[in-house]
Amino acid sequence: MSMRKLITLVATPDRRIDVPSPQEFATCEAELGLALPADFKELLSAYGVGRFLDYLFAYPLAGHDMNIRRNSLLLEGHSASRDKFPAWYPYPLYPEANGLLLWGGTYDGHSLCWLTGGEPDKWPVVVWHQRNSDYRLYQGGAVAFIASWLERKLPTRTLPRPPRADDWFEPARKLKQVYVYLDGGLGSFTERTRLLRQLLGPVRDRGSSVDESDRDDHFATAQDWRVTYSESPAARLIRVAFPAVDEEAVRVAVISAVPMLGHTLRHAQTVTGTQVWAG
Per the record, a Pfam family (predicted)? Predict the structure, then answer.
């Protein structure tokens, strides 16, 4: 699938961040000892660094993200587990021959990899959820994979459905993320979502998604805080991303909203699991 198809689904941004130069592509390929697929180069050149729908992202070349260091750390981090549970690892890991090579990820913790071997432009994509050793193979490159996800054509076992909204790509910003885990709740999810939007408003819609028993509502506040309100059998939570300088204002606004929704606060944590906003 061509870049033209992807661009019809999601327009390229007016402001692109960290677009690699031809020399940076060449340096990355030299470090890896592998040529990168042409569609991946086109992807980073067209969009720069950022996120599709606040969820799916490709690793930038800048800052040693998509090169030998990141992938070597992946192999190092799984070596002991793989020795003990080899069935959890059906594929080799780069730099092993034909190993999985990271090229992107999602905020649910899915690792987006190529299964290397043969011509780079024919490498399939493997979605690897490292927390439960789940692998899904997609016979297509990075651009085709992203387009299929945006068109809601991927099985939900591969990735959750995108929110129902106009699709977008946002160039990278340095944002802090906090996950506020909740118990309880009054009324229906729809009623609580409407109230949360009022409490944090005015807001602009960024879509919603319903996947079996999982519900997500996405919106942005006037301060451009990015909020996701989620309900699933496993957890109820508010995820908020914001500039670090706004943290106290975000904390007050979100924590004040919790009892208004009939929730009690279980805990709040960063993406690394560090608990915050206690007391």
Answer: SUKH_6
